[in-house]
Design a protein that fits this description.
The protein is of the alpha/beta class and 263 residues long. It has ten helices and ten strands. The strands form two sheets. The protein has a seven-stranded mixed sheet with strand order 1-2-3-4-5-7-10, with helices on both faces. The chain has a three-stranded mixed sheet with strand order 6-8-9. β3, α1 and β4 form a beta-alpha-beta unit.
Length: 263
């Protein structure tokens, strides 16, 4: 029986759960869902608040833009209320600065957990931190008006919210370097052609397409999906022979489980 529960709603992030599907929504459309440390902590809290029976996480955004990236208030001397400004962080020790950035990254890394499949539903602008948030997900379904851009270098910064690894994995080193160094827009056709997008649909069909994909993901047994995701995530770092070995070990676990012989 379907049941919808609102689990969290704070700092521009809302988490709702309906059976095995959790939806994380960015809820500040008036500011094009710009991001801040408070939002990143709310994303971390959303990940920690997931019920154990959730299998699919949909990351979406209200309004016409997925996320226009970092709120530029971060670069002002006063920063955000109750937060150290980025200028204050820069004056700290290397250890303090590293710890602060690591905390920000936590809002992104949980979307790669083996026990869930995450889908970003992306419309309009996904810039900088917004691009990296979409890249944090396993899959991306995008509207035909999508515009990805990595603008950190234009600000004298680097992408540091875990986006560089998946970007290189999806489009290759040379194209990733060109996208990041120029800060240019990647639109829907290129996103689909290069693997950034799994599917491109008209904007009015975005929610329905994501629902269909979530339903298809839920059709397979959970443990088989978890094992398959782990296999694929590790493939790039293994040799062909090591991947063969990993496949055999994973399949042995599945067979024993199906036969009721699991440890």
């Amino acid at each position: 029986m379907t049941s919808l529960e609102q689990v969290l709603d704070k700092d521009g992030v809302r988490l709702t759960v309906e059976d095995a599907v959790a939806t994380v929504s960015l809820t500040n459309p008036a500011k094009r869902n710009v991001q801040s440390p408070a939002l990143w902590r709310a994303l971390t809290d959303a990940g920690r608040s997931l019920p154990g029976d959730v299998r699919v996480v949909v990351l979406r955004a209200e309004g016409t833009s997925f996320s226009a990236g970092l709120d530029r208030q971060a670069f002002t001397p006063e920063g955000f209320d109750g937060e150290p400004s980025f200028m204050d962080l820069a004056r700290g020790s290397d250890t303090e600065l590293d710890a602060a950035i690591a905390e920000y990254q936590e809002g992104f890394v949980w979307l790669r957990r083996n026990d869930i499949v995450s889908i970003a539903a992306v419309q309009g602008h996904a810039i900088g931190a917004g691009f990296q948030l979409a890249l944090a997900c396993d899959l991306r379904v995008v509207a035909s008006d999508v515009q990805f851009a990595m603008r950190e270098t234009s600000l004298g910064l680097v992408p540091d919210l875990t986006g560089t690894h998946p970007l290189v994995g999806l489009v290759g080193y040379a194209r990733a370097l060109e996208i990041c160094a120029t800060g240019r827009f990647v639109q829907a056709e290129e996103a689909e052609r290069t693997g950034l997008a799994n599917l491109v649909v008209p904007g009015e069909e975005l929610d329905a397409a994501v629902r269909d994909l979530a339903g298809a993901l839920l059709a397979a047994p959970r443990d088989a999906v978890i094992e398959t995701k782990a296999l694929l995530q590790g493939a790039a770092g293994r040799s062909f022979e090591a991947q063969r070995t990993a496949e055999r070990a994973s399949q042995a676990r599945r067979l024993r489980d199906l036969a009721g012989l699991a440890d």
